[in-house]
């Protein structure tokens, strides 16, 4: 099974239609990867699906970079 | 015109919904039509195949979230994810407000309005991914004009129009359009229940001096679903013989 980092990056590539090399750990979804508000919502939903978890809105708002997404998943995975 | 599209039409067993479903199928769309009963769903599926069209009949109670989940997975499995959603299913529980019971209010709001929220939400993700989609909500002239004895129905239909405008703004960037078609008085089972005197009184307020036919609503829906309707969103198209000019 691939690592959380790989899985998160794969989702970001798919959802935002960006190149894999653009998805650095520090990349911000909105500022660096060109996501709009709808993209960020869909991204969170895709993460929820992939990792079978529920991300409350107040937490979702704080996930703005690739690293933050990875950290969140690592902290909340069973 | 609609080849390759998958349309989901609620309340397709009769009346306006049936006409819409058949018209979309005639244009080449694969159509899933829903009915509240197994007999209704089978009847729709038979009508579709008798006419040589593609699609399926499904049982769906739009007022129940669990039923929506079940129907959505059936549609997706059998036909694919809908690219056209027509929220048509609706009920009336007419009463003067002073006599209106909570359950008459709740039933109409749940079936006619909350269902639009739930079904639109259920269809949006795949439309968003596909970067295209059409959501067409069947409102009513009553939502724009009001009608004594229909405060619940008018509220649901007016709510639908506000919902439509908001969602149109949310998903426009994905090339998904969201519109209403607002029928006036159409010759269906729903309006045949009206007392004779009320029908006559209504006719005198309609410049075209007749009730509409379900097919005349369906043609507006087909237009919005077609490539020709791509630049219209958040709009309500009134089809009412001139009884209300917005």
TrEMBL record, chain A:
Record's GO cellular component terms: cytosol; membrane
Pfam families, sorted: PP-binding (PF00550)
Locations listed in the record: Cytoplasm
Location of the Carrier domain: 2-77
GO biological process terms, semicolon-separated: Kdo2-lipid A biosynthetic process; lipid A biosynthetic process
Chief place where the protein resides: cytoplasm
Task performed by this protein: Carrier of the growing fatty acid chain in fatty acid biosynthesis.
Descriptive protein name: Acyl carrier protein
Organism whose genome encodes this protein: Thiorhodococcus mannitoliphagus
Lineage: Bacteria, Pseudomonadati, Pseudomonadota, Gammaproteobacteria, Chromatiales
Encoding gene, per UniProt annotation: acpP
UniProtKB/TrEMBL annotation, chain B:
Signal peptide: none
Residues reported in the UniProt entry to bind NADP(+): 11-14, 36, 61-62, 88, 153-157, 186
SUPFAM superfamilies cross-referenced by the UniProt entry: NAD(P)-binding Rossmann-fold domains (SSF51735)
Domain Ketoreductase: 5-184
Keyword Lipid biosynthesis: yes
Biological role stated in the UniProt entry: Catalyzes the NADPH-dependent reduction of beta-ketoacyl-ACP substrates to beta-hydroxyacyl-ACP products, the first reductive step in the elongation cycle of fatty acid biosynthesis.
Protein name: 3-oxoacyl-[acyl-carrier-protein] reductase
Organism: Thiorhodococcus mannitoliphagus
């Amino acid at each position: 099974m691939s690592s959380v980092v790989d899985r998160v990056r794969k989702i970001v590539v798919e959802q935002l239609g960006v190149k894999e090399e653009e998805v650095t750990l520090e990349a911000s979804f909105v500022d660096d990867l060109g996501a709009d508000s709808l993209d960020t919502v869909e991204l969170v939903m895709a993460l929820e699906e992939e990792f079978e978890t529920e991300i409350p809105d107040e937490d979702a708002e704080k996930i703005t970079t690739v690293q933050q997404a990875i950290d969140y998943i690592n902290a909340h995975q069973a | 015109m609609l080849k390759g599209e998958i349309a989901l039409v609620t309340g397709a067993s009769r009346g306006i919904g049936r006409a819409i479903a058949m018209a979309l199928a005639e244009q080449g769309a694969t159509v899933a039509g829903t009915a509240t009963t197994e007999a209704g769903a089978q009847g729709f599926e038979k009508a579709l195949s008798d006419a040589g069209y593609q699609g399926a009949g499904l049982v769906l109670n739009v007022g129940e979230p669990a039923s929506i989940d079940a129907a959505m997975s059936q549609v997706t499995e059998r036909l694919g994810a809908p690219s056209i959603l027509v929220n048509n299913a609706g009920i009336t529980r007419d009463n003067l407000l002073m006599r209106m019971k909570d359950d008459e209010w709740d039933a109409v709001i749940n079936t006619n309005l909350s269902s639009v929220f739930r079904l639109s939400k259920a269809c949006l993700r795949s439309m968003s991914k596909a970067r295209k989609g059409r959501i067409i909500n069947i409102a009513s002239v009553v939502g724009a004009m009001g009608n004594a004895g229909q405060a619940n129905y008018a509220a649901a239909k007016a709510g639908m129009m506000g919902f439509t405008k908001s969602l149109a703004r949310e998903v426009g960037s994905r090339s998904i359009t969201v519109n209403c078609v607002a029928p006036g008085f159409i010759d269906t089972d729903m309006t045949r229940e009206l007392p004779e005197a009320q029908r006559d009184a209504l006719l005198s307020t309609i410049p075209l001096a007749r009730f509409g036919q379900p097919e005349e609503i369906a043609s507006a829906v087909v237009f919005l679903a077609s490539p020709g309707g791509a630049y219209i969103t958040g709009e309500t198209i009134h089809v009412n013989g001139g009884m209300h000019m917005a």
